[in-house]
Amino acid sequence: MRSLTIRRPDDWHLHLRDGLMLAGVIGDTSRHFARAIIMPNLVPPVVTTADAAAYRSRILGALPEGHSFEPLMTLYLTEHTDPEDVARGKESGLIHAVKLYPAGATTNSHGGVRDMDKAMPVLERMAEIGLNLCVHGEVTTPEVDIFDREAVFIETVLEPLRRRLPELKITMEHVTTSDGIDYVRAASGNLAASLTTHHLIINRNAILVGGIKPHYYCLPVAKRESHRLALRAAAVSGDSRFFLGTDSAPHVDPLKECACGCAGIYTSINTMSCLAHVFEEENALDKLEGFASLNGPAWYGLKPNEETITLVKREAPVNFPAKIDTGAGPVTVFDPMFPLHWDVE
What we know:
Blueprint: E1 3-7, E2 11-14, H1 19-30, E3 35-38, H2 49-62, E4 70-76, H3 83-92, E5 95-100, H4 116-129, E6 132-135, H5 149-164, E7 170-172, H6 178-186, E8 191-195, H7 205-208, H8 225-235, E9 242-244, H9 253-256, H10 271-281, H11 288-300, E10 308-313, E11 323-326, E12 329-332, E13 342-344
Parallel strand pairs: 2-3, 3-4, 4-5, 5-6, 6-7, 7-8, 8-9
Antiparallel strand pairs: 1-10, 10-13, 11-12
């Protein structure tokens, strides 16, 4: 196959940051993606519907001329979030999900939830109104090994929450383990998972072998090869509970290449080329549209996009920049470590 036309894709987990960084990266998403679930972990975080409305306006104001893109806004869950503000946000059509960050789990998550009981009034209201909870599924207790955080979260946080509120709709974001894949597959309902581009391609060797590679460091951290293969199998399976959420997360190079580097990988610019490569390797190009364009809208109760994009396989490798320049500073682009021949026409 040399050409593939699919519905225009969406990104169900995206970091756009704010200010100069937002202006520098938004075009890489809006060039290919029609919509994206926008992460709320700014400084300060997006905690109220009014915050989300203001952030949405800034995103739309930063769009390159001629680009069409719909930011789907989320709220940052705290132990003091107002359930009625959340309900009003959903009713208005502005708020599409609330994001649970266990405190300290990732970038700008220090204001997240430490005591789930204190968040229950909001979660109960969300269950009543059918609003999705997106979870960063890792525990942060220091005695738990970083490579086990996802599995322990499922056992000690997610499973008890789902038993307590079975009607709550939950997205496990950026699943990185076979434990997470198996948990979603075994669920009877109200549970789905997003998968990132980079976790389908790298395992933890990419970070550590031959010297520390900070631009492959992300949270949740990449795991063993067996887990990567489980993610790929889920992505290409055709199971509608799995869909694309890139977790593309730009940081300027000085904040990545330092003694305590930030977690995040920037993939917005080449995600569709990477995915086409992965799905072709798995003899599953016919499943790419479902993963990137159909499953996510169905889960979030939205219609698929009417527009299409066409991916073309070039004879020569497609040249993507090693870095992009933003007003905030240089950002390194994800290198999949193999040549990319698929390109969005």
